[in-house]
Amino acid sequence: MKIRMQNIGPLKDATIETGKLTVMTGTNNTGKTYAMYVLWAAIKNTFKNHPNYSNLKCLEKYAEQLLQNKTVTINILEIISNNSNEFDEYFSSGFQNSLDSVFNMNGFLGETHFVSLEYNYNYLSDLFYEIDFMPNMGDVFDWELKNGLITFKINTFDEYYDSEDVDFDEEGKAIDPIIHKTESEAEYNQSIDNLNKESAIKEIGISTIESLIIAGRYYQKPHFYFIPASRNGLNLTFQETNEYKANLLQEIKRPVQRISKEILDKMPVAAYPEPVEEYVEMLAKARRLHGVSSENEDEYMKYIQEKLSKVRYSIDDQGNVYGTPLNKKLPIPLYLLSSTSSSLYGLWLWLQLKEELHQHNLMIDEPELNLHPENQILLARLLVRLVKGGAKIAISTHSDYIVREISNMMMLSQEFPNRDEFAEMYDYDLEHETINPDDVKAYHFTTQGDHAVVTPCPILNPGGIEVPSMDATIEKQNDCYNTLYQTIVSNRDKPK
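Given the sequence above, the corresponding structure tokens read:
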């Protein structure tokens, strides 16, 4: 997908197109994390506040057919592919309306922010052959899914709007998807008599078709799971926060109507952006892994524990996390483990839960946190292994080691003399630790005046990702070191 962001924090006007591996890098305070939040939300939260159904003009002809023939068969893949621009505008509008909530601060983005989305709808190719969820149509339609085609058949409209089948609330108002503000059954019946049934059928038809598109888009495409840079602190404190929440829930259930001041005073008030809140929710799910055997761990979990964290993670029945050093038997609580082991715990947990959560794609803010350069290189290899395994990965990083290692694996994807010997010398697995340069998108974030500028990083062939700000800083430091060294050596034996 391609996303354009205007006036999002320091990002005045930035366009990012995702790849199988997307790398965002550059100087501090240039909006990389904001871009990660927006990207996360663009995939997950598009439909939180969508516009009216009638905005999708391309659906009107199918509603007309439904109205005239009482049945219609539609190929949703064809609808979307033939009207991709209209769907992009539609999804962009809905996303625009919900973006403030992603940052968990009303009015944070101001009045001038703008986001436009351009999706790659190729992922829908098998969608309606495999979809296992369909929205509830109520009594209006019967439907059938066969060979990627969906057939709707409308039930008798008069029967559907028979007042005997309509529920009324405590105030006597009819509960109905189209007729609103009726005060009694008699008034409801009068409203039905005055209703333009053709318009009603058309509106329901459009909304139902659109609901199917949303169902497929939302329920079938796994979104990105976000691991924040604040993960170490969250890993250590989420349990305490959950206990406060549990106490509050118990207090609310008490017969006494008022919540005790003691509970309210102790209740922490923590506000996080939605991607971070989702990470905290994942941490709370760790308890269900109590008793899970390490024999069920896949190659990626073993890679993290054996090559990176050097501990085996486990969770007790209270949700407490432990790490047992390799070749040891005594589990150590997470809060006593090294910062490296704590930082990598969230990645291990995601691997444990991703099937259950239907979240096979990953975003990591500053994956290099707490890692020695050697481990940063190994982590870069793990990320490429995940991509080769089918995941999409997006990272925001300041690590030259990670960027250069990704570049190494891009170059290793090409054939050249003695490639196998080279891979053996530097311990590369050519099946799992190479990546096609076409699968990588990289972006450089820098400042210009009071705002950030985002430009695609040059991807050299050979050479890989070029990051101007990193290269300039490293070159300057190397020049400084070499000048100092040569100056001191050259003057060491001179008479004073």
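DSSP finds 17 helices and 19 strands in the chain. Try to locate this feature in the token string yourself.
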